Amino acid sequence: MSLFKKAYQPLIGIDISSVATKLVELSRSGDHYRVEHFAVHALQPNAMTENAISDVDQVVQSIRAAFKQSRSKSRDVAVAVSASHVITKTLTMPSNLKDDELSSQVEIEAEHYIPYPLDEVNMDYVVLGPSLDNPNEDDVVITACRKEIVDDYVAVIEAAGLTPVIIDVDANAVARAFVESGSSRVRQNQERTIAIIDFGATTTHVNVLHNNHSVYTRDHSFGGKRLTEEIQRRYGLSYDEAGLAKKVGGLPENYQSEILLPFVDAMSQEAARGLQFFYSASPYNSIDEVLIAGGCAMIHGVDKVIADRVGVTTEIFNPFSAMSLAKRINPERINKDATAMVVACGLAMRRHKK
Ligand SMILES: Nc1ncnc2c1ncn2[C@@H]1O[C@H](COP(=O)(O)OP(=O)(O)OP(=O)(O)O)[C@@H](O)[C@H]1O
Ligand SMILES: [Mg+2]
């Protein structure tokens, strides 16, 4: 028996992305995290379409399989919807409003910004604090997502026998993973703008943080699927065979120069384009550092090619680099997928009290 109740319940972070269901559970002592449970279970390309669930049965089976593989004993889950389905808007509200007054004011204001009837969306808001322009007003960020998207995530988690306790936005999870994993190097009074570019299978997610807060997100349609398809075409392999060959090797000698290098070059162009979009859509005109995540960040040397192209210090973002691992976790296994686990990690870092 313990005299101290655990302040926080363990939470399973599940990222349902276009090629896999990814699961992470962490424990925390002070600022230090330990990976307790970890699993990745592959999804076929038809399971997710445009960052939303399209084959419910397949996703449910995959969550069950990942959960079983992880051997977690927890039940509570945090999942994320894609930022591309989410509308966020910063409003200013008088700071003297009571909670219920604030919530009804937010609803009235939100009507102007959300292009759907309010009863068809899930909406949430957070008060950021006093507005820079007027100290008598608070900046309030509203977040809204169509109910049908959120409901699908709730439904698949429940159908897999688990409890969805947090529905987050993937970009917020990425920012949290960065800040909490100790990768952030913001010192007091030091301004710092960093871009995390996550090269997934179908999508490249650009997320810019200023002093650890997300200030810009954008999805570009580019990802490792292009490389997989090129390998399939060139060597007559199936989708699964090509995916495996990318990870474990064994392709003919010309693969490196004729297929892989041009793809890495395309990644660096996409990174440069992502930053250009950011500069033109925001008041910022420089970035201090680029971090590369997603499965494609596992390609050896990609950080150097991107650094050369964008002219900014570039590193690979491994969210587990400062964490210890429980005995049941195979270090080689987790390292192979580390850069693809950023969203799942950021979700598992959400703490919730019981
Ligand atoms: N070692 C590796 N070398 C090259 N490519 C790899 C390696 N490991 C994974 N990938 C590729 O990374 C991609 C998967 O990345 P990731 O898991 O981040 O995607 P995702 O999150 O499912 O996709 P999305 O974010 O687009 O929904 C696949 O195209 C996969 O083939
Ligand atoms: Mg992803």
What does this structure look like?
- The chain has 354 residues and is of the alpha/beta class.
- The protein contains 10 helices and 16 strands.
- It is globular.
- The chain folds into 3 domains: 1-84 and 147-183 and 319-354, Nucleotidyltransferase, domain 5; 85-146, 2-Layer Sandwich (Dna Ligase, domain 1), CATH 3.30.1490; 186-316, Nucleotidyltransferase, domain 5, CATH 3.30.420.
- Helix 8 links the parallel strand 14 and strand 15 (314-316).
- It has helices at 56-70, 99-113, 147-159, 170-180, 225-235, 239-248, 254-281, 302-310, 331-337, 342-348; strands at residues 12-16, 20-29, 32-42, 48-49, 52-53, 76-81, 86-94, 121-130, 137-146, 163-169, 193-199, 204-210, 213-220, 289-293, 314-316, 324-325.
- The mean pLDDT is 91.
- The chain has a 6-stranded mixed β-sheet with strand order 10-6-1-2-3-16, with helices on both faces.
- The protein binds adenosine-5'-triphosphate and magnesium ion (MG).
Supply the number of structural domains.
3
**N- to C-terminal separation?**
18 Å
CATH homologous superfamily of the largest domain, by name? ATPase, nucleotide binding domain
Counting copies of identical and different chains, the oligomeric state is single chain
- Separate helix tally: 10
The helix-strand sequence is EEEEEHEEHEEHEHEEEHHHEHEEHH
How many beta-strand segments? Answer: 16
Lateral arrangement of strands in the main beta sheet: 10-6-1-2-3-16
Summarize the biggest pleated sheet: 6 strands, mixed
- Percent of residues in β-strands: 25-35%
Helix and strand content put the structural class at alpha/beta
Bound molecules: adenosine-5'-triphosphate, magnesium ion
Q: Can you tell me the residue ranges where pLDDT is under 50 for at least 5 consecutive residues? A: none
Average residue-wise pLDDT? 91
What is the helix fraction of residues, given as a range?
25-40%
* CATH class designation of the largest domain: Alpha Beta
Please compute the radius of gyration using only Cα atoms.
21 Å
Name the CATH architecture of the largest domain.
2-Layer Sandwich
At the fold tier of CATH, the topology name of the largest domain is Nucleotidyltransferase, domain 5
C-alpha geometry? globular
